[in-house]
Amino acid sequence: MPAASRVRIYSGTARNLRYLARRLRAGDVVGVPTETVYGLAANALDSKACAKIFRAKRRPRHDPLIVHLHTAAQLPDVCEPNDAAKALAAKFWPGPLTLILPKSDRIPDIVTAGGGSVAVRVPAHPLFRRLLRLAQVPLAAPSANPFGYVSPTTAEHVKASLGDRIRHILDGGPCGIGLESTIVDLRTPAKPRVLRPGAISREAIAAVLGRPVRTHPQRGATSRNAAHKPVVAPGLLARHYSPRTRVVLHRRLGAAEHRAEAYLFINGATAPQGPNAFSLDPKGHLPGVARRLFATLRAIDAQGFRKIHVELATGVGLAEAINDRLRRAAAR
Ligand code: TXA
Ligand code: MG
């Protein structure tokens, strides 16, 4: 039997925000809304507090955390920013972009998994920004899901999967973007690399930096052309962001033929109707697809289908980020 849930969901009143900021300063973990996905936050300067994040998520200690700041002016407190970082911060922060930079001594080893670099971002969600300002410390926060499961995009998702392991969740409504931030490795500024695609595209980053940006090669497929080629060997990919139900990817989906299996279409306008047919956006617009992807996968996952057939997005930019998450969900 799971432990009785003691968790409470807080609305974003000034009083609640002050209370949660005090809890964070006292070393508690708090589920927080961001514009990408919900995070599980703790004081990034307090290793004991950060250890609670790893315990609650059952996350291996070798997987480092992202440090969230209230403003880019705090960068020198946590890392050694370079000109490339300053340019990207000026253009995209607050927003869904995470930068990997050499860490400062103030950041405890548990945050970086013992490594010399730290992941940092200034998030855009207004409630999380107010909480960061009130807490007056940088907040380490991974996505607030049990390790390996689909990321949460509502406070209820956080409660459903971590509710018996944490006490506090701040409700900021459904996340506007719905996919985790773009991660750019800037340790060697002359060779920037996207480690995880997100809503801020490689092309947009390259335009600011004035140089080409590579994508970290993923085992089994490259993220750029995956929508145009058959999906090969998804078993080679790291399993992550995965529903419990097996996910099978398709370039195009036709009829929802097997009743015991779910079919998830990109475009609602052209999707078939039926109890086992689902779609992500009424017009197939990619921001809507991204925003609803994880919530829809969770909802289908709860319905006991034998498999989930999913259609890949087409195009570059956000399509690459959507397909990256779909390939990880399908990896076994
Ligand atoms: O949108 C987001 O980024 C959300 C919200 C909560 O901010 N956070 C998030 O965190 O997705 P998480 O921990 O689920 O994913 C962060 C990824 C992990 O794959 C981790 O390995 C990588 O970032 N990472 C963190 N620090 C790193 C570092 N110093 N070097 C390389 N990768 C790092
Ligand atoms: Mg995560």
Summarize the structure.
With 332 residues, this protein is of the alpha/beta class. It is built from ten helices and 15 strands.
Please render the helix and strand layout as text.
Elements: E1 8-10, H1 14-25, E2 30-32, E3 39-43, H2 47-57, E4 66-68, H3 75-78, H4 83-92, E5 97-102, H5 109-112, E6 117-121, H6 126-135, E7 139-140, H7 155-162, E8 168-170, E9 182-185, E10 193-196, H8 202-209, E11 214-215, E12 246-250, E13 262-267, E14 277-281, H9 286-301, E15 307-311, H10 318-330
Parallel strand pairs: 1-8, 2-8, 4-6, 5-9, 10-11, 12-15, 13-14, 13-15
Antiparallel strand pairs: 2-3, 3-7, 4-7, 5-6, 9-10
Helix pairs in contact: 1-6, 9-10
Bound molecules: threonylcarbamoyladenylate (TXA) and magnesium ion (MG).
Spell out the key features of this protein:
332 residues; alpha/beta; four-stranded parallel β-sheet; globular; binds threonylcarbamoyladenylate; binds magnesium ion
What about the largest sheet? Answer: 11 strands, mixed
Query: What is the C-alpha radius of gyration, as a whole number of Å?
Result: 19 Å
Ligands in the model, by name, code or SMILES, are: threonylcarbamoyladenylate, magnesium ion
Shape: globular
User: Percentage of helical residues?
Assistant: 25-40%
Which strand order spans the largest sheet, edge to edge or round the barrel?
Answer: 1-8-2-3-7-4-6-5-9-10-11
The averaged pLDDT comes out at: 92
